[in-house]
Amino acid sequence: MAANLLTRSFPPAGGSTTLSATSRKEGKKKLTLPSFPFTHTSERHLNSSVSFYPLSFGEGWGEANTGTNIKNMLKRFAAIWFRHLTTDWQAIRRPELQNMPFVFAAPDHGRMMITATNSIAETHGVIPGMVAADAKAIIPSLQVIDEQPGRAAKLLKSLGEWCIRYSPIIAVDLPDGLILDVSGCTHLWGGESAYLDEIVKRLKSKGYDTRAAMADTVGTAWAISRYGQLRPVIGPGEQAAALFALPPAALRLEPLIVERLQKLGLKTISSFISMPRSALRRRFGQGLLQRLDYALGNEDEPIQPLVPLEPYMERLPCLEPIVTAAGIEIALQRLLETLCKRLQQEGKGIRTAILKAYRMDGKVEQIGIGTNRPSHHIRHLFNLFELKIATIEPALGIELFTLEAPKVEDISPLQEALWEGKPGLDDQNVAELLDRLAGKLGADTIHRYLPDEHYWPERSVKMAISILEKPTTNWRDDKPRPLMLLPCPEPIEVTAPIPDYPPMLFRYKNKVHQIKKADGPERIEAEWWLNTGEHRDYYYVEDQDGQRYWVFRLGHYSAEERANQWFLHGFFG
Amino acid sequence: MTDAKKDIISRLQKDILLWEGFRPPAAGAAGSVGLGPVEAAFPNGVFPTGAVHEFLTAEPEHRAASGGFIAGLLAPLMQNGGACLWTGVSRTVFPAALRAFGIEPDRIIFIDVQREKDVLWVMEEALKCSGLAAVIAEMRDISFAQSRRLQLAVEQSRVTGFILRKDIRKLSTTACVARWRVTPLPSEPEDGLPGVGFPRWNVELLKVRNGNPGAWKVEWSAGRFMHIPEYTGEMVLEEHSRKAG
Fold first, then answer.
1. Closest approach of chain B CAs to the CA of A394, in angstroms?
2. Which run of H or of E encompasses B233?
3. Is the four-CA dihedral B207, B213, B216, B219 of positive or negative sign?
4. Fewest CB within a 10 Å sphere: which of A14, A59, A430, B231?
């Protein structure tokens, strides 16, 4: 039955038979793996005689495979297991923790439950899942640090991005591993075991304690990295043999199924791998069969590769140093063309962009632009830069230009203009005009106002944050408001009958205005929750020439004469 | 013979107007800005949009009156969701007051520049932008060459420009299509009610290219311009009755 399974797990390619022949030929090489420690738990004994399976597939199987069908090309996967991912990371950040036991703990049902331990704590028997108080009883000097949820995922993602130097396809394997699709990568590091060596060594030097394994399937690589005792590299098609001695948990089964298998005395995979599939399905569900198929390679396991974010940056080295503005313009145009082409394909637009010019004498000149809305319009961006090209000093000459877009946003696809030239704030031309104005005069010169729910005139309008922000309330036009409002009210001399009649005349800038008609008063209180101050009684007055003003009296009349009680605040249209 | 000559002359005049950027009255009411008899002063009897108008505003009161008049003109220009741009060095326009003239103040973009010469640059750039309905600039002075640049810009984009000139001591010729002076007039409350009535202005068209200058009394009431005919019998009667009272 086992032989049956083996043949099933092999791809029916002619290459596989030649392959084993080749591999046996160069089987005299001895494998030494210093970076593959097998000292995890007591049940996994370290087998120091790694030469027990003295097989190396570094170059051999690749050569043998060249003649075979590409479609049947063997996939190779590596699994990396971070034995103490979060605690290693903590020890890197705080070196004083390196030589003392510490654990991460998170509150669970009112207790602090240990979620991760470092190797020193582990040797004392502290394992994840223990209550922190119990662990403290075992090791009184134990440090307990609060766990931050999601840290492991974040760490694995950044480690995965680091690993892209080894393989272009990397998947995060939560909670503590990485999966690398290494098909066709290993020969660059001189063979598969050298490849794994290199990764483990490099991670070790950074401070991460890892185990790595390689096999034809993700499942087997995973199992060997966690539970393997003999050798890290499993040859093509040898998954079944490698899995035989491993416990069922190596198949990434649910804890419930593992427990049931244990109860039935099925302590290794070999004890149930040859059972009829229908019996296994009935007893343990489809999950077990699927995991088995994944591990043996009967079924392809999908992985979610990490997609690294490529920076939006373009370079343009110059054969001869550029010293003229025309040359800079040509360089800018080229850079914009390539960058905008990429942005257009990805449906994105530039919000900010920086052009850097690296000079012969080592200095870097740079100019930057910003846009009000994302844009990949070459002409427009070029015009924005054009205003600032004059500020670049080429000196002896510029040898390299780079254009980068640190801030990029999704662009909403422009609707085909159904009404050509419809004016408005959402018009593309207006946005581009404002970009030009902001580029030359600064963004703080552009203002747009929205109504705000205040009576106090200075606060009744507020600055809009963006060009497309919509008003949240309606504009009021029930009370007279002057078309020109002075930024700060100017004191006037007034003759007015008390208590609250409009003034009869006022003097402003040495000119006397006789008041003929008046409306008011409209009392506006200073909003005490915003600032303290006296109320204003506003009058809408018209003088003998028909000129209309907005004047107010500050506060109540009081016994002592105050000089500046009347103010002019605006001119009506 | 004379009829034929007149015909030729009028056709030539129309052609010249077209070349100068004046459009014949469009079908429908889209061309009208609601100024009534004032519009008749312009060639073809149409208020020229897509041109630059200048306003003489020496006093802040005149600036406010001109601002109100322009705001009234903006309402039909901005009616289809159009945006406009208002620029100046020390701008005092209060956005909340523009609502009374029938426009949405949030559709006006204000550019507050530091230097006088930036106003001209902003105005020229904005007049080139066909996405705007109108551009208003408050500036001290403008030379013929500068106004010519603005005129060339609007001939491409058909944007309407308004210039508020502060310095009127040395008035040079400009390429603007019309020169206005809007001054406030005493308002007339309805039926002798107390208080201040609707804003009323004396609108003077000092210069107009190919048109007839003149002066009119205009009131902004109920969301539109009202032409006040001069010296009506009613007003005289009112004066008499007041004297009698």
1. 28
2. helix B233-244
3. negative
4. B231
**Is the domain of A57 the same as that of A189?**
yes
Q: Is the Cβ of A471 closer than 8 Å to some Cβ of chain B?
A: yes
DSSP state of B198: S
Instruction: Pick the residue from chain B with its C-alpha nearest to A543.
Output: B186
A268 within some domain: yes
Residues A74, A203: one domain? yes
B108 touches chain A (CB under 8 A): yes
Is A35 found in the same domain as A92? Answer: no
Give the structural domain span for A104: 85-150
A433 and A321 in a common domain: yes
3-state secondary structure of A141: coil
Please list the alpha-helical segments (H only) found in A130-285: 132-138, 151-162, 192-206, 218-227, 239-243, 255-263, 270-273, 277-284
Per residue in B15-53, is it b (16+ CB within 10 Å) or e — as a string?
eebeeeebeeeeeeeebebbbeebbebbbbebbbbbbbb
pLDDT tens, N- to C-terminus, chain A (573 residues): 444 433 333 333 333 333 333 344 444 444 443 444 443 433 334 333 333 333 333 333 433 344 344 445 678 888 999 888 888 888 888 888 888 888 888 888 888 888 888 888 888 888 888 888 888 888 888 888 888 888 888 888 888 888 888 888 888 888 888 888 888 888 888 888 888 888 889 888 888 888 889 888 888 888 888 888 778 888 887 888 888 888 888 888 888 888 888 888 888 888 888 888 888 888 888 888 888 888 888 888 888 887 776 778 888 888 888 888 899 999 999 999 999 888 888 888 888 899 999 988 888 888 988 888 788 888 888 988 888 888 888 888 898 999 988 888 887 665 444 444 455 677 778 888 888 888 888 888 888 899 988 888 888 888 888 777 888 888 888 888 999 999 889 989 888 887 778 888 999 988 999 998 898 789 998 888 888 888 888 999 999 988 999 999 888 777 666 656 889 999 998
Work out the minimum CA distance from B220 to partner chain A, whole angstroms. 10
Cβ under 8 Å to A: B residues 122-181: 122, 125-126, 128-133
Cross-sheet strand order for the sheet of A313-322: A313-322, A398-410, A348-359, A364-375
Choose the final residue of a domain: A296, A329, A356.
A296
**A50 and A189 assigned to the same domain:** yes
d(CA B20, CA A207): 80
Is residue A230 located within the same domain as residue A274? yes
- B213 to chain A, any CB pair closer than 8 A? The answer is no
One-letter amino acid identity for A301? E
Task: Select the residue of A430, A446, A571 nearest B64 (Cβ to Cβ).
Answer: A571
Query: Which of A423, A448, A471 faces B131 most closely, judged by CB atoms?
Result: A423
CA distance B125 to A438: 12
Same domain, A76 and A123: no
Cβ <8 Å between B81 and A424 = yes
Clarify whether residues A366 and A400 are in a common domain.
yes
Does residue A359 lie within any of the structural domains? Answer: yes
Separation CA A143–CA A130 (nearest Å): 14
Query: Could you tell me the domains of chain B?
Result: 48-244 (3.40.50.300)
The sign of the CA dihedral B153, B154, B157, B163 is: positive
Residue A166 lies in a domain: no
Distance from the Cα of A356 to chain B's closest Cα (Å) equals 27
For residues A230, A232, A237, A243, the Cα torsion angle rounded to the nearest 10 degrees is 50
Instruction: Report ipTM for this prediction.
Output: 0.84
Asked if A446 has any chain B CB less than 8 Å from its own CB, the reply is yes
Note whether residue A378 is domain-resident: yes
